[in-house]
């Protein structure tokens, strides 16, 4: 099944330019053919191509179908982006395929990347959402300072993964099914001891992701997968 991303379908019954190009030039669909659309906000749409004029493809919606997510709770990963953006983009793509609700980028004491643009990341998340046949594009938040972020109120479960000495439970053993969950993943140099202490003071539970030493993007993906599987 081909899924077309149409964020403005409720106000403009026409495929966006890139989606129209794929529909008409690559798939060679024509008037009367049926399409499946998503607004990226939790709904699928069954539609029929009604009019084709040059590069424009207008549709008629037949049915609006709410997405039945295959996980419960609101799953949120907040991570320090890697110095090599390719690795952060790889993570975003795979996490969207697995399934998460929100992604935030943290500016930490040991972060090697202090700023970032999110335009390309939005496209990656959207493409991965379509590829995995989901109807909700994860919420993407731009860079925010670590201290500012963790001081924000949060009603769900809060975890911080770090490599400092001390006994820490495995995330899989402490996360509760059906509840909102937020996991913090640090930069290549890990969170500072001060950051870990501050996080614990505001209610974050230190956790382990296993015995292996993981790169930032790998740790973020492992955390995402654990949250998703727990909430299946």
Short description, anyone?
The chain has 232 residues and is α/β, with parallel strands linked by helices. The protein is built from 7 helices and 10 strands.
Explain the overall architecture.
The chain has 7 helices and 10 strands. It has 232 residues and is an alpha/beta fold. A hairpin with a 4-residue loop joins strand 2 and strand 3. Helix 2 packs parallel to helix 3 and helix 2 packs parallel to helix 7.
**Which stretches are low in confidence, meaning pLDDT under 50 for 5 or more residues running?**
none
Helix content: 25-40%
Largest sheet: 6 strands, parallel
Indicate the proportion of strand residues: 25-35%
| Overall geometric form | elongated
Q: Give the helix/strand class.
A: alpha/beta
Strand order of the biggest β-sheet: 7-6-5-9-8-10
Determine the number of helices (DSSP H or I, runs of at least 4 residues): 7
Q: What value does the average pLDDT take?
A: 95
Number of strands: 10
Radius of gyration: 20 Å
H/E series, N to C?
Answer: EHEEEEHEHEHEHEHEH
Measure the end-to-end span.
23 Å
């Amino acid at each position: 099944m081909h899924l077309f991303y149409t964020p403005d379908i409720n106000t403009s019954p026409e495929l966006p330019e890139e989606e129209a190009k794929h529909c008409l030039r690559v798939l060679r669909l024509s008037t009367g053919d049926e399409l499946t659309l998503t607004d990226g906000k939790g709904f699928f749409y069954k539609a029929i191509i009604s009019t084709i004029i040059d590069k424009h493809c207008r549709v008629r919606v037949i049915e609006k179908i709410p997405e039945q997510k295959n996980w419960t709770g609101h799953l949120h990963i907040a991570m320090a982006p890697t110095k090599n953006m390719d690795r952060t983009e790889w993570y975003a793509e795979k996490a969207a395929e697995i399934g998460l609700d929100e992604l935030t980028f943290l500016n930490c004491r040991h972060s090697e990347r202090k700023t970032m643009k999110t335009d390309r990341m939005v496209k990656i998340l959207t493409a991965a959402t379509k590829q995995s046949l989901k109807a909700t594009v994860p919420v993407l938040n731009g860079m925010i300072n670590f201290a500012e972020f963790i001081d924000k109120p949060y009603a769900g479960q809060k975890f911080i993964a770090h490599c400092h000495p001390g006994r820490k439970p495995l995330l899989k053993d402490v996360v509760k099914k059906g509840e909102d969950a937020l996991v913090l993943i640090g930069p290549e140099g890990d969170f500072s001891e001060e950051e870990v202490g501050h996080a614990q003071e505001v209610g974050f539970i230190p956790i382990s992701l296993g015995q292996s030493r993981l790169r930032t993007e790998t740790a973020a993906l492992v955390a995402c997968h654990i949250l998703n599987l727990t909430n299946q």
